[in-house]
Amino acid sequence: MSESRPPRFAVFGQPIAHSLSPRIHALFGAQCRIALDYRAIELSPADLAAGLARFHAEGLAGANVTLPLKELAAQACIELTPAARLSGAVNTLIRRAEGWCGDNTDGAGLVADLGRLGLRLAGARVLMLGAGGAARGVVPALFDAGVAELVVANRSAERALALAADLACCGPINPCRWDELASRGAFGLILNATSAARSGAALVLPPSAVGTAGTAYDLSYGAAAEPFLAWARAAGASTLADGLGMLVEQAAEAFQRWHGLRPPDTAAVLAQLREVAP
Ligand code: NDP
Questions:
Q1: Contact between 91 and 137 (Cβ < 8 Å)
Q2: Which residues pair with residue 126 across a beta bridge?
Q3: Which CATH class for the 8-104+245-274 domain?
Q4: Which residues line ligand 1 (CB under 6 A)?
Q5: Mind listing the pLDDT tens digit for each residue in 185-209?
């Protein structure tokens, strides 16, 4: 009698050894009593297209994609969801008979985590720092959640302009030069979607950007989130959060795409992760 093996899933990236996704999906599987085998697999950008085809042929049931492969993965899919098409980046691969359908759950994950924090997005004026793949990925979901205006500031102004033009169909996006931020008033929510801290660079921001009841949210987590959150604390932000909750919630969205149900207790998984990634 042959033993049935659990369906296989993976997260692809480079580097990938640090990824928390295998741990998150194992915890979700335990919550939902679903057996699964989820592994972190390193793939270089040059190997991505061939790798995705090979893993599809070998029966991989689904996958996540992370840095630096998200944009390339969008090009390797046979089908894209509206969220992936609008952002031009894929973080979730859903198996189809002929290849992969690419989705992007980062935006839904961020909005779910902001909801956990009790933040009301309807009518909000939001500042986003950064115009890379993560920034693009979350814009559609922010407007779906009712954001009234999004100001985008990026180190290279052209990239903020391109984001505003490409995603204009989602809602009013105002690109802003970094040195103009002081004249833009206060925001109810500031999202740091830059990777500046990874290279040890400090963001120079005017304290006036933080509203009296303002929330500062860094999409990074751990040490990478500390400089921005320290700035926001000093500037008077009332709520501070890093992106670990978003990581859990975007994973829950992917889990739902693959297994047909959302893990019921993402807060418990977040609490368990805090013990290993404070
Ligand atoms: P990208 O490489 O696509 O974009 C990086 C962004 O950071 C660009 O806007 C870039 O500006 C900006 N930047 C880099 N260095 C500096 C600097 N020294 N000063 C100012 N701006 C800088 O990365 P992603 O968009 O994919 O990721 C951004 C962050 O979001 C990462 O830290 C990532 O870990 C995090 N993230 C978290 C997720 C979660 O689930 N919590 C999900 C996805 C991402 P420029 O255009 O000028 O180069």
A1: yes
A2: 150, 189
A3: alpha beta
A4: 67, 106, 109, 130-135, 154-156, 159, 193-196, 199, 201, 203, 219-220, 224, 243, 246-247, 250
A5: 999 999 999 999 988 888 989 999 9
